[in-house]
Specification:
Elements (H helix, E strand, L loop, with lengths): L4 H12 L5 E9 L4 E10 L8 H10 L3 H13 L10 E6 L7 H8 L7 E5 L8 H13 L3 E7 L6 H7 L3 E4 L1 H4 L6 H16 L3 E4 L5 H9 L4 E2 L16 H8 L19 E2 L2 H10 L5 E5 L5 E6 L8 E3 L2 E3 L4 H8 L11 E4 L5 E5 L1 H14 L4
Length: 376
């Protein structure tokens, strides 16, 4: 049942005093090493009937208590700072329009040294004046804090936003991350953000990673930091990374300029029969191909979404993990026109299935390498 205005006021004043509010922490992961390097602090409201943080902060704005509630959330998160694991940072969220309020400024004054703290400027409200933000941003930086821009690629976080604030950390919006394994335009934009970040001495962080395929795609793009439910959900301090996810990342080195199929391989859904493949397509509307496996666990063929209902199976072309990309493309072009642009089935030296390599990724890898090669 929705809270009345009178009840919201009571609850908000209670939460602003620090009662009934808690902090949860979502791990931020180093893509190359497969280790947790930071945590984003998130406000939670276990002592109340309404649990949704978005509802709380929206109600706080309606009742002119936004600055007080954000200050209370900051204090709750920073109370955990003494136990923060070694070599990890803590990211905290602040609305840009509240950064200059006395309530929020008073929180920073309680901490003379803000080393290891990342202040994320959220995207709920537009930034009216970048000049007005400068004194507070400069003060935070002088105290040792880093500045992050949240949801880059969406809302108000446009190029002017990035150029004016010059953040140390650029968080890529979930909308860009979702389905990145199947969207070449999204991959191109993330690649461009990475190039921009490297030029201004910043890091990029992809948030909202929810599938193994998204993780693999982002790792192949060289995104250094990842965050999302597939890696770890928000939890009490201090959650560690799932062993299987850590191994997946650690065993997949990043390739800045891919040269062999191993650098581009991505996971794929497999099935032992056409009927099972058809069920996989029905269960996941975004699935484009299923790899049909033989009885001895070897990849044999591809079934695509368009032919699923008819049971149309295309013999798959297999290639070794260490096959040079250019050589693999040459081989792929010898296939019949109907299957010429299907992904390749990639295997290890023992013939075991390692994943698939998409032709569009192979072509992009070659053209990107050529663009960066001073001899080309």
């Amino acid at each position: 049942m929705p809270e009345s205005d009178a009840q919201w006021l009571i609850n908000l004043h209670t939460a602003c005093s620090g009662e009934g509010m808690a902090a949860s922490f979502q791990p931020i992961v180093d893509t190359a090493r497969g280790t947790v390097v930071g945590y984003e602090a998130l406000a939670r409201f276990p002592g109340f009937g309404e649990k949704n943080p978005e509802a709380w902060f929206a109600a706080a704005r309606r009742h002119s208590l936004a600055a007080q509630l954000e200050a209370a959330a900051l204090r709750r998160a920073l109370a955990f700072r003494p136990s923060l694991p070694t070599n990890c940072f803590m990211a905290v969220n602040v609305s840009p329009d509240l950064l200059g309020t006395e309530d929020v400024r008073s929180v920073w004054r309680e901490h003379s040294d803000l080393g290891g703290i990342v202040v994320e400027l959220t995207e709920q409200m537009p930034i009216e004046s970048y000049v007005d933000l400068e004194p507070d941003l400069n003060s935070l930086r002088a105290a040792g804090a880093l500045i992050a821009v949240d949801d880059a690629g969406a809302g108000y976080a446009g190029l002017r936003h990035l150029l004016s604030i010059r953040p140390s950390l650029i968080k890529i919006d979930r909308e860009l991350v979702q389905g990145v394994d199947r969207d070449e335009a999204k991959r191109a934009l993330i690649r461009m953000l990475g190039m921009f970040a490297s030029q201004v001495d910043a890091w990029i962080l992809a948030e909202g990673v929810e599938t193994a395929q998204e993780l693999d795609a982002l790792a192949s793009l060289g995104v250094p930091l990842l965050q999302g439910y597939f890696l770890a959900r928000p939890a009490p301090a201090w959650a560690t990374l799932d062993v299987d996810v850590a191994h997946r990342l650690a065993s997949r080195p990043l390739a800045k300029h891919p040269q062999i199929l191993r650098d581009l391989v991505e996971s794929a859904t497999t099935a032992e029969s056409t009927p099972r493949a058809q069920k996989a397509f029905l269960a996941d509307q975004g699935l484009d191909v299923v790899v049909l496996m033989s009885a001895n666990g070897r990849p044999e063929a591809l079934l695509d979404a368009s032919g699923a209902g008819l049971g149309v199976v295309s013999p798959g072309m297999r290639a070794n993990l260490d096959t040079p990309i250019a050589q693999a493309l040459d081989r792929a072009m010898t296939r019949p026109a109907s299957s010429r642009f299907h992904p390749l089935l990639v295997t290890d030296n023992a013939g075991r299935f390692a994943g698939i390599a998409r032709l569009e990724r192979m072509i992009t890898a070659l053209t990107t390498a050529a663009n960066f090669d001073p001899q080309s």
